[in-house]
Amino acid sequence: MTQRTLVLVKPDGVRRGLTGEVIRRVEAKGYSLVSLELRTATRELLAAHYAEHEGKPFYEPLVEFMLSGPVVAMVFEGERVIEGFRSLAGATDPTAAAPGTIRGDLGRDWGLAVQQNLVHGSDAPESAEREIGIWFPSL
Ligand code: DAT
Ligand code: MG
C-alpha cells in the first residue's frame, strides 16, 4: 500500500545540522522524497497542525518551540511509509526512544517543558492527508 507522509525536521534538528542525517536515514530505508521546503511556521499553521493537542499542558511550549527557528517540511512516499517513518523516528521521549532510531540515537532530554525530539511524522493515513494539505496545499 503506497502512502505519503508528512515529515518535519523540527527547529532543534535544523539548528543542530541534522537535516541531512534525517533525510539520509529515510532515503536509505527506501522511501522517496516528493517535496521539500525550508520554512518558518506561523501560529496559524501550527494551530492547524497540532489541533489535536490544543489545551494540553505542553501545547504552548510546543508552539513556541516550533516557532523558534525554521523547520524543514517534507513529503515522503513509499510502501507503508507512515508506520515506517514513525518506526525510524522512535518514541516521542528521546531518552526512552530505542537506539537505532532518529530520536534514540540523536535526540537529547534537556529537561524542558516540551520534548525537542528532532522530527515529526504523521501517525495515520487521515492525519497524513490532513497535514500534507496544511504544509503543501498544492500537492
Ligand atoms: P509524536 O511527535 O511522537 O507524534 P505527539 O503527537 O503525542 O508525539 O506530541 C506532539 C509533540 O508534543 C511531541 O513530538 C513532543 C510534544 N510532547 C508530546 N507529549 C509530551 C509530553 N508529555 N511532555 C512534553 N512534550 C510532549
Ligand atoms: Mg503526533
UniProtKB/TrEMBL annotation:
It comes from the Bacteria. The keyword Lyase does not apply. GO terms for biological process: CTP biosynthetic process; GTP biosynthetic process; UTP biosynthetic process. InterPro entries: NDK-like_dom, NDK-like_dom_sf, Nucleoside_diP_kinase, Nucleoside_diP_kinase_AS. Keywords: ATP-binding, Cytoplasm, Kinase, Magnesium, Metal-binding, Nucleotide metabolism, Nucleotide-binding, Phosphoprotein, Transferase. CDD domains: NDPk_I (cd04413). Belongs to the NDK family. This is Nucleoside diphosphate kinase.
